[in-house]
Amino acid sequence: MEQKKLDLFELHKEEYRATGKPRVVETGPARYLVIEGIGEPAGEQFSARLEALFSVAYGIKMAKKKEGRDYKVAKLEGLWWGSRGPGDFSLQPKDEWNWKLIIRTPEFVSEDDLECMVGTLLEKGKGHDVKRVKLETIDEGLCVQILHIGPYAEERPSIEKLNRFAQEQGLSFHGLHHEIYLSDFRRVPPERLKTILRMPVC
Length: 202
What we know:
Helix content is 26%, strand content 26%. The model has no long low-confidence stretch (mean pLDDT 94). By secondary structure, the protein is α+β, with helices and mostly antiparallel strands. The chain starts with 7 loop residues before the first helix and ends with a strand. Strands 1-6-8-7-3-4-2-5 form an eight-stranded antiparallel beta sheet, with helices on one face. It has helices at residues 8-11, 44-66, 111-123, 156-168; strands at residues 23-26, 30-38, 76-82, 97-104, 134-138, 142-149, 177-181, 194-200. The longest helix has 23 residues, at 44-66.
């Protein structure tokens, strides 16, 4: 009998439900593979570290599958902030953007699994950026989110809609701008990209 594949997005589907109308969502703590960097998304550092993150994520997934614990590699997500402190990072020069690329990962993935996979990938000649991948638990708690359809550069109207909604609910933003990429930007035209925009609130 074929083993059932764990799907974290399906298991926590209420956290990933979003439409063009903002909503409040309660998120729980979640474990992620993460890699950080600074600079524009089209830059060499971003591309190299994105590749490193995916290499580690899929490598661990295949290793756990062999152990009988199969799961789907979750969608890519990103946390964004500026180098000048609090405020709208998107108004700053792109070379000052800070980002943390993250992929939600089952709780049974351990530090030992990560260390072993990084060693394996280095032996196979993968770039040293794989050593930058870490395991981290992120707990955002109460958030507001909205589904944005279209290019990433045209998110401002959706963000403003989120901001107005939060104010109407008596809430204020705190924490980092969070994007959940439902579409693969390498394969989907910009006008059809689907992205959940999420902001922690209090």
